[in-house]
Amino acid sequence: MTLTEKRSIVETLRTDYSVRQICDVLGFNRSSLYYEPKKDPCEVLLQQEIEMLAARYPRYGYRRITEELLRMGYTIGYRRVARLMKSANLLVSVKRSCQTTKSVDGKSQWVNRLDNLDICRRNHVWVADVTYIQLKGNFIYVSFLLDVFTRIIRGWQLSRHLTQPLTLTPLQRALRENVPEIHHSDRGVQYLSNAYISTLTDHGVEISLAHRGRPWENGYAERFIRTLKEEEIYLNDYDDIENAKLALDILLNKYIT
């Protein structure tokens, strides 16, 4: 039985019995109830660092917290960080995930044009991606188009379904105001549909695609999704799609001009 459990039993019974009586009957060593282990100063400092990181990144699990500590110069492993986070009740719950894109297999005329590319002007490269938002009991989806050089959101769309309008509608709206030289995305079916491809080619846009199974090749979009989730999605519970849209309007407005 742990010290915490012993103390809990004593606190429950001490209104009717003395501490001595409780310990005698249950076989506790009374002095053990008052024992406080000495804390290692290094452990205390590490715990404080973990708590600060957890406050800054409230949806980080022990693996990502460990990676942040390693970047700060600590020599530490996942297990120790997990133990310290558990003791401070900082372990985050894992939400259900859902698939947002289905990749198209086979050969393609398009390649990754961003390899070693110096992106040096507005509308040089737009990146596109889709992520999900969990509501109470189901998912909704958000797509976006990001100008890599300016970090401006050229278009975005929220939908209950992973259908063509989720990606095509914001693209069509965005192209009325600006046209990129290169459009980059993963190989999701939403981005390789005839309607989407023809919309890009009709505007003279070069198409760039990440290789299948290499999400880091769409790293600009991946980093923006992480920012979006850390600053808004993971910090809130949405009742419905309208509630989510209002919240995203406020956040994404910072990236729209």
Describe the model:
The chain is α/β, with parallel strands linked by helices. It has helices spanning 3-13, 19-26, 41-56, 62-71, 78-87, 165-175, 194-202, 219-231, 241-252; strands spanning 125-134, 139-147, 152-159, 182-185, 206-209. The protein has a 5-stranded mixed sheet with strand order 3-2-1-4-5, sandwiched between helices. Strand 4 (182-185), helix 7 (194-202) and strand 5 (206-209) form a beta-alpha-beta unit. Helix 4 (62-71) crosses helix 5 (78-87). The longest helix is centred in the N-terminal third of the chain and has 16 residues, at 41-56.
Structure, briefly:
This protein is α/β, with parallel strands linked by helices and 257 residues long. 39% of the residues lie in helices and 14% in strands. It has a 5-stranded mixed beta sheet with strand order 3-2-1-4-5, sandwiched between helices.
Report the radius of gyration as a whole number of Å: 26 Å
Span of the ends, CA to CA: 61 Å
Sheet with the most strands, sense and barrel status:
5 strands, mixed
If strands are numbered along the chain, what order do they take across the biggest sheet?
3-2-1-4-5
Question: Percent of residues in beta strands?
Answer: 5-15%
Number of strands: 5
What global shape is seen? elongated
Poorly predicted tracts of residues:
none
Note the run of SSEs as H and E: HHHHHEEEHEHEHH
Q: What's the helical proportion of residues?
A: 25-40%
Class of secondary structure makeup:
alpha/beta
Total count of helical runs of at least 4 residues: 9
Give the overall average pLDDT. Answer: 80
